[in-house]
Amino acid sequence: MMSSTHKTRTGPRFKLTIRLSLALALVAISTFGLVRLASARTDRKVIAKELSFKLSSKSVAKAGTVSFKIKNAGHILHDFKINGEKTHLIKPGKAASLVVTFKKKGHYRYICTVPGHAAAGMRGVFTVR
Ligand SMILES: [Cu+2]
């Protein structure tokens, strides 16, 4: 008797709580999705070797954050510098990533800072449209 009374009193309320939680979870998930979309990063692959850089694309459609994934496919140390940001010296066969925020459109020079490398060809221009 006690238990059946207990069930009828709390049953519907419990279901309502579950429904509210699900609704809140959906709102949270969709809000999170929108935030992710708004702050989406653009990825660009960079292959470094003696003595050049090869980028998967040398431009992005608009100002924002770009995540460069630099792979050293050469036999000596290289780094990658753009817009005042620089990776550490990357060992042959290793990779590093560099997240750079471009606040406005323009042409941004990129180089390898190892002495002589930029002059020998490890340089280029990245365009933010
Ligand atoms: Cu280099």
Can you characterise this structure?
The protein has 129 residues and is α+β, with helices and mostly antiparallel strands. It has 2 domains: 1-40; 42-128, Sandwich (Immunoglobulin-like), CATH 2.60.40. It is built from 2 helices and 9 strands; from the N terminus they run αββββββββαβ. The strands form 2 sheets. A 5-stranded mixed beta sheet has the order 3-9-8-5-6. A hairpin with a 2-residue loop joins strand 1 and strand 2 (52-55). The protein is globular. The N and C termini lie far apart (73 Å). The model has no long low-confidence stretch (mean pLDDT 84). Bound molecules: copper (II) ion. Copper (II) ion is lined by residues 78, 112, 114, 117, 122.
Number of domains: 2
Largest sheet: 5 strands, mixed
Overall shape: it is globular
Give the N-to-C terminal Cα separation: 73 Å
Helix content percent band: 25-40%
The unreliable regions are: none
CATH class of the largest domain: Mainly Beta
- The strand order across the widest sheet is 3-9-8-5-6
Structure ligands: copper (II) ion
Please, what is the CATH homologous superfamily of the largest domain?
Cupredoxins -  blue copper proteins
Question: How much β-strand is present in the residues?
Answer: 35-45%
CATH architect. name of the largest domain: Sandwich
Structure annotation, total helices: 2
Mean pLDDT rating: 84
- By secondary-structure content and strand pairing, the structural class works out as alpha+beta
CATH topology of the largest domain: Immunoglobulin-like
